[in-house]
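re: ur msg from earlier - yeah i can do the magnesium ion complex, just paste it... oh wait u already did. ok heres what im feeding in:
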Amino acid sequence: MRMKRDITLLVAAVLALGIFVIDAFTPLNGAIAVLQIAVILLVAPVGQRALLMCGAACAGLTVASFAIGHGLGGWNGALVRLIVSLVAQAITVVLSLRDRSTRRSLDEQARILDLSHDTVIIRDRTDRIIDWNRGAETLYGWTRDEAIGCVCADLLQSHIPDGKADLALCREGKWAGHIERTCRDGRRLTLASRWLVRTDAAGEPIGVIESSIDLTEQIASEAERNQARMQLSHLSAELAHAAGVATLGQMSASIVHEVNQPLTAIINYGNSTRRWLNQPEPDMAEVRQCIDRIIASGQRAADVIRRVRDMARKVPARPEALDLADLTAQVLALLETEARRGKVRLTQTLAPGLPRVVGDRVQVQQVLVNLVMNAIQAARPDGSAEVKIMAEPTGAGQLAVTVCDNGPGVPADAMGRLFEAFYSTKADGMGIGLSICRSLVETLGGTLTAQNGVPHGASFTFTLPLAGDGCAGTHEALR
Ligand SMILES: Nc1ncnc2c1ncn2[C@@H]1O[C@H](COP(=O)(O)OP(=O)(O)O)[C@@H](O)[C@H]1O
Ligand SMILES: [Mg+2]
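and the outut:
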């Protein structure tokens, strides 16, 4: 590099001196001095300082040769030629300086393009590649020299899914969107691309400059994440279903009792009916009453079985407006025997006319059953055990339902782990009840928290969004 520079300067010096000698010692009368312009142009690429010094030297030599050739007399036309030469040299220096600064800014822009990790491709009107930066070399696999001159769409097998790039370029002079391309090793890429029409001085389009970034990995990992999310929600649903069935297993004694009771009643009423009919004068009013009771008991047994089947069924959640008082009464009916077996007094203080909430009937039932079962299991077995269910609006568009007991409460060190899956302090506990309750409630837009009572007992509170107009989350949850 340095050697090339030295040789250039040497050649320029020899040339300048040659011109000077011819100018000064031959009878050409100063016309030759204008050739110093060639020396200036030769030195221009070397550097700004060299250019300025060369300009000054050429001017000095021109003036010197004028002085030698003409002395102090005979100026006339020669002076004009001297001035023309000097002006021409000065103009050449100025233009060369300007050319250098333009070149420098172009070089800098090219370096910036190369520094960018994005791909930058400059194309002409026929889609032929005029330039592409290092980012494009790295991503697509072709070097700049290989790519230049190729038709971009052919080389990269471009496909624009929305197909509207040409229209947008025509109308607005720019386009942004996704594009699919194939790189040298055959990999298909998806890129986010921005295109801008290049115009000439008259504003006529002369091609396109585009900058793109590779989204392939991002899209792949997003797809993976979505799949994982779907698998997780499928697993959660499976687990919730398993937990529901497990709870039913725990409640089997109550269920048998619940079904047995109406069945026994049906048999009794059936016997009574027969007795009434066997009388010499059957009392049809009594018979009718017995049959009504048989129907009511049959209905009750069918209700219990429907509730059990609901809890065991495996269908997607269907949020609807729910009357919690009604739902709680059903849950208490299912758990009555369980409470009696544990000598627990099970009460509810749900005020009539409570606003409805949004939730899936089976899921909310499952949450209540789990919390009440836990409370019954935690209650003291000395006959003073109590489990209460209460509910009140929170004022934040939600209804809070609390299940509290007067058992030993949750040990301080267990408080943080209660909602972890498989955390259980019971010998036969699965430890998934509370974690599933929390995820069910959160899916419905509510929360589930635990507190210890004073002086003893534990209470679990879950909230659900109120149904009705102007209630945030309702429509979301109902979708
Ligand atoms: N009402 C309660 N009082 C005291 N501890 C409770 C109560 N409810 C739940 N717990 C604690 O939380 C743990 C986790 O409960 P849960 O997730 O329902 O699983 P499991 O009932 O199978 O143990 C229980 O093992 C118990 O230690
Ligand atoms: Mg439990």
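cool cool. The domain at 319-479 is CATH 3.30.565.10 (Heat Shock Protein 90). ping me if u need the other ligands too
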